C-alpha cells in the first residue's frame, strides 16, 4: 500500500475545497451531493471523511476559501484609494462576472443558502465578507476605514442583489443596463464621481 505524505493530503483537501466551491456556486449547496463533489475532485466518496467531518464542514471551509480567493484576486489586486474602489465596483458589476458564476463571488451565488446554513458556515461567511468590506473601506477612507464600514457593507449588499437580478433576467439588454445602473448607483452611494 502506498502511503502519502502530509503535503499530498493537504493538496488533495485543497482540491476538494476549490472544486466544491465552484460546484456550490454553479449548482447550489443543496444541489451538490458528496458523491458529485468528490467526483469533481477525481476522488471516491470514501475519501471524503478523511478530509472533512461532514458536508457542513466542507461548506464552511469552501465558503471561507472562496471569499479568501475573492479578496486575493480582486481586492488585493485593485489600485489604492478611490481608483481601486471604482475598479472593484466595475469588476463586480461586469457582464463577465455575471456570466461566470462558477468563478465569481460566493455572495451572489449562495447568499440565500448561506442564510439557511449551519452557524459555522455563517461565521465563515461573515469573517470572509468583512475582510472584503475592510479592503474596500480602507481604499475609500484610508484615514478612518471604520467610519465607512457599514456604508460599504450596505453598498456591497446592493451590488450583490444587482448581480443576482442581472443573472436572473432573460432580457440580455435589460441585464446589461441594470449592471451599468448598478455601477452608477454604487459609485454615487460611495461618494465617487464617475468620470464623464
From TrEMBL:
Coiled coil: none annotated. Residues 33-52 bind DNA. Transmembrane segments: none annotated. Pfam families: TetR_N (PF00440). Keywords: DNA-binding, Transcription, Transcription regulation. Residues 10-70 form the HTH tetR-type domain. This is TetR/AcrR family transcriptional regulator. It comes from Streptomyces gilvifuscus.
Amino acid at each position: 500500500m502506498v502511503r502519502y505524505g502530509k503535503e499530498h493530503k493537504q493538496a488533495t483537501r485543497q482540491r476538494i475545497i476549490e472544486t466544491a466551491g465552484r460546484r456550490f456556486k454553479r449548482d447550489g449547496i443543496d444541489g451538490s451531493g458528496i458523491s458529485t463533489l468528490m467526483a469533481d475532485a477525481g476522488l471516491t466518496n470514501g475519501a471524503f471523511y478523511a478530509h472533512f467531518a461532514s458536508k457542513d464542514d466542507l461548506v464552511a471551509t469552501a465558503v471561507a476559501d472562496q471569499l479568501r480567493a475573492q479578496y486575493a484576486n480582486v481586492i488585493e489586486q485593485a489600485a489604492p484609494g478611490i481608483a481601486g474602489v471604482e475598479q472593484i465596483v466595475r469588476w463586480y458589476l461586469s457582464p463577465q462576472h455575471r456570466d461566470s458564476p462558477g468563478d465569481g463571488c460566493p455572495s451572489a451565488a449562495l447568499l440565500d443558502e448561506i442564510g439557511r446554513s449551519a452557524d459555522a458556515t455563517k461565521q465563515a461567511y461573515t469573517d470572509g465578507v468583512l475582510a472584503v468590506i475592510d479592503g474596500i473601506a480602507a481604499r475609500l477612507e484610508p484615514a478612518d476605514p471604520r467610519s465607512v464600514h457599514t456604508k460599504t457593507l450596505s453598498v456591497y449588499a446592493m451590488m450583490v442583489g444587482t448581480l443576482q437580478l442581472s443573472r436572473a433576467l432573460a432580457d440580455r439588454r435589460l441585464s446589461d443596463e441594470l449592471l451599468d445602473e448598478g455601477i452608477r448607483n454604487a459609485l454615487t452611494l460611495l461618494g465617487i464621481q464617475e468620470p464623464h
